[in-house]
Amino acid sequence: MIILDDAQVWTTIGVLGATLVGMITLVVTLLMRTMRAEFGAIRAEFGAIRAEFGAIRAEFARVHDRLDHLDRDVNALMKHSFGVDRE
Asked: Measured between alpha carbons, how far is 79 from 73 in angstroms, rounded to an integer?
């Protein structure tokens, strides 16, 4: 059986404490780096999704404009065909 004196006990406690603090620091640092990288990737994905929605919104605006023109043309044809515009 090994019997440690006071200095050896405190040295062992200090080494184990320093190792524990070092490991916690390492794990937290690596975790934070990973989280930053993943959040950056998520931000990039949201930016791409936002751009896609902008493109879809522009396409809907184009379709809306074309439908407005079509409505105007159909109304003009209906007025012309049924003689509504003749007074």
From this structure: 10
The string of DSSP letters for 10-58 reads HHHHHHHHHHHHHHHHHHHHHHHHHHHHHHHHHHHHHHHHHHHHHHHHH
| Token representation of residue 49 | 């999704």
- Check residue 9 and report its DSSP letter: H
Region for 83 from its dihedrals, namely left if φ exceeds 0, alpha if ψ lies in -120 to 50, beta otherwise: left
pTM of the model: 0.55
Q: Please state, in angstroms and rounded to a whole number, the distance separating the CA atoms of residues 8 and 25.
A: 25
Q: What is the pLDDT of residue 80?
A: 82
Residues with Cβ within 8 Å of 84's Cβ and at least 6 positions away in sequence, in order, are 78
Q: Model confidence over 36-78: pLDDT tens digits?
A: 999 999 999 999 999 999 999 999 999 999 998 998 888 888 8
